[in-house]
Design a protein that fits this description.
Helix 1 packs antiparallel against helix 2 (35-55). By secondary structure, the chain is an all-alpha fold. The longest helix has 27 residues, at 63-89. The chain has 4 helices and no strands. It has helices spanning 7-28, 35-55, 63-89, 105-110.
Length: 122
């Protein structure tokens, strides 16, 4: 069954999508720490839900089609949970710069080491 919605509804949804896009850009410049990924995923999910419901007609679709879409959304949520789990529990390692080692072959010979293998010449 196809139900034609009023054009003003589509305009409002379109304006909501534009507003959410601006919110996405604004939030990208705000440092929320580990919550940046979660906020970005929530905004993206909201935009996807609006597109699914109104522009793809899921709001007026049959139950079987809704079930298929809901199962796909649940799958995506499980994948999001994996991404967020990795993001929240990842250790941030800050490596110190390695000091440059300058040794000439003469320095190695003084210490009795072979210049190629680093083994003693004995």
């Amino acid at each position: 069954m196809h139900v034609a919605a009023d054009v003003s509804l589509y305009r409002r949804i379109f304006l909501c999508l534009i507003a959410l896009t601006f919110v996405t850009v604004f939030v990208a410049f705000v440092d929320l720490g580990p919550w940046n990924v979660l906020v970005a995923l929530l905004i993206a999910s909201t935009k996807a839900l609006l597109v699914l419901l109104y522009f793809m007609g899921l709001r007026w679709a049959d139950r079987l089609i809704r079930f298929g879409v809901v199962s796909a959304v649940v799958t995506v949520l499980i994948l999001f949970a994996g991404v967020l789990n990795d993001d929240f529990h990842r250790e941030i390692r800050r490596f110190q710069p390695v000091q440059e080692i300058r040794a000439t072959l003469d320095d190695l010979r003084v210490r009795g080491l072979d210049g190629i293998t680093g083994r003693s010449e004995d």
